[in-house]
Design brief:
- α1 runs antiparallel to α6 and α15 runs antiparallel to α19.
- β1 and β2 form a beta hairpin.
- The radius of gyration is 22 Å and the shape is globular.
- It is an all-alpha fold.
- It is 78% helix and 3% strand.
- The chain has 20 helices and two strands.
- The protein has a two-stranded antiparallel ribbon with strand order 1-2.
- It has one domain: MFS general substrate transporter like domains (Growth Hormone, Chain: A), CATH 1.20.1250.
- This is Sugar porter family MFS transporter.
- It is found in: Membrane.
- InterPro entries: MFS_dom, MFS_sugar_transport-like, MFS_Sugar_Transporter, MFS_trans_sf, Sugar/inositol_transpt, Sugar_transporter_CS.
């Protein structure tokens, strides 16, 4: 199955028949890292009351238990940029898959709270590195007209992971006193599937060209789109690297992130990463059963509603996949941040006036639907394509480091904010953050749809 696309490298037109089936296959396998990302982050939502009772934790320790994975993810993001540059995208993802498998079982069967936290943080290292490399890899291997949709599939895989985690929690709820241990251990199954699937994917051709492995890169590009496509892409990638340094770029230098011509782009990426986690969805994903119980639902019902969250998340992600390459990144960011602001205000009001639990469920599901159709998928697309080739690994590392630190503070602080501020003020605060993000997107974020990575780089570095 092939699709005809049109490219204009060096002002020359080239018709290319892209092997769409092959692009789908390698993108789908790489996106399994997103399944583990979503699964690992959310699986804890169903275990909170059980390990809290087992380890006799207070609210600060509960926040630490839930949020510590994000500190591990921050570490994964910091080392992921360098490792993806030295080892390559594929080998790093294989290492992440092994770590996912080991830490799932380790967290589940930890004999003490410190050991539980240690395995949870190590699992976060895998999450952070995979979250950096997976969308970057998919963006680097996908032709420009397909890139937005392909990277959006990564967000879909995160959503699938979240849904599987909620379903796993529900199915394992009544397995006895060790139910929470089995919930965590269930992570090892998709991790092993991811590991073996990676044997069937190719290395990033952009990484190969930067390492002077041009023949390997052209062979992969040829399989994606044929000889003309391979020649055009390889030429454009080489030109992009040499224009920035005067020489082909074999490795990334961290100090380049702070160059006068590059820092504004890096800053935009950091802000996008931070607000993608600060708007409030983590509070809903990580503490959904607790929120529903506080709204008056029974435990079994609260777990079932969490599955509904996963289903809504899954369904509405397809809106972004279907529209991102037509509507554009910037408009989806604007629509999403504005609507999330209104929904957060509605949640704040529903808890303030103690509306029936059905209203809480409606507003929670609406929040997840909006996020899934806009900010969730578009964030990873924007981060994967906004940075120049020369600094993409380190820039993604810095942006995702900011993402995970933000994620840590939002998840770890939620039980404390809930207790000391109350839910009305907590969601009111998230509404303010959504409004600030809307203004930033409107004023600073460029549109990147339909452009090759090299065209985006040229436009942003030479305005």
């Amino acid at each position: 199955m092939a699709i005809i696309i049109h490219a204009q490298p060096d002002s020359r037109s080239v018709d290319m028949a892209v092997n769409r089936s092959y692009v789908y296959l390698i993108s789908a396998i790489a996106a399994l890292g997103g399944v583990l990302f979503g699964f690992d982050l959310v699986i804890i939502s169903g275990t909170v009351p059980f390990f809290t009772e087992h380890f006799l934790l207070n609210e600060f320790q509960v926040g630490w238990a839930v949020g510590c994975i994000n500190l591990g993810a921050a570490i994964g993001a910091m080392i992921g940029g360098k490792l993806s540059d030295s080892l390559g995208r594929k080998k790093l993802l294989m290492a992440c898959a092994v770590l996912f498998a080991l830490t799932g079982a380790g967290t589940g069967w930890a004999g003490s709270f410190p050991l539980f936290v240690t395995f949870r943080m190590l699992s976060g290292v895998a999450v952070g590195a995979a979250a950096l490399v997976c969308p970057m890899y998919v963006a680097e291997i996908s032709p420009a007209p397909m890139r937005g949709r392909m990277v959006s599939f990564y967000q879909l895989s995160i959503v699938i992971g979240i849904l599987l985690a909620y379903l796993s929690n529900y199915l394992l709820l009544n397995t006895g006193v060790n139910n929470w241990r089995w919930m965590f251990s269930s992570q090892s199954a998709p991790a092993l599937l991811f590991f073996f699937g990676l044997f069937f994917v190719a290395e990033s051709p952009r990484w190969l060209i930067r390492k002077q492995r041009n023949d390997e890169a052209k062979a992969i590009l040829n399989r994606i789109g044929g000889r003309d496509y391979a020649d055009a892409e390889a030429s454009q990638i080489k030109d992009s690297s040499s224009q920035q340094t005067g020489l082909p770029a074999a490795r990334e230098i961290v100090s380049d992130l702070f160059r006068k011509d590059l820092w504004p782009i890096v800053f935009i990426g950091i802000v996008v990463a931070v607000f993608s986690q600060a708007v409030g969805q983590n509070s809903l994903f990580s503490y959904a059963p607790e929120l529903f119980r506080q709204a008056g639902m029974a435990q079994n019902s609260a777990f079932l509603q969490s599955i509904i969250i996963g289903v809504i998340n899954f369904i509405f992600t397809f809106i972004a996949i279907g529209t991102i390459d037509q509507v554009g990144r910037k408009k989806l960011f604007q629509y999403g941040s504005a609507l999330l602001c209104l929904d957060a205000l509605a949640l704040s009001g529903s808890f303030y006036w103690q509306l029936p639990s059905a209203w809480v469920l409606v507003f929670v599901l609406a929040f997840i639907a909006i996020y899934s159709a806009t900010l969730g998928p578009v964030t990873w697309v924007a981060l994967s394509e906004i940075f120049p080739n020369r600094i993409r690994g380190n820039a993604m590392a810095l942006a995702t480091l900011a993402l995970w630190i933000t994620n840590f503070f939002t998840t770890a602080s939620f039980p404390v904010m809930k207790q000391h501020w109350g839910l009305p003020l907590t969601f009111g605060f998230h509404a303010i953050l959504c409004f600030v993000y809307f203004l930033f997107v409107r004023l600073r974020l460029p549109e990147t749809k339909g452009k090759s990575l090299e065209e985006i780089e040229k436009e942003l570095t030479h305005p």
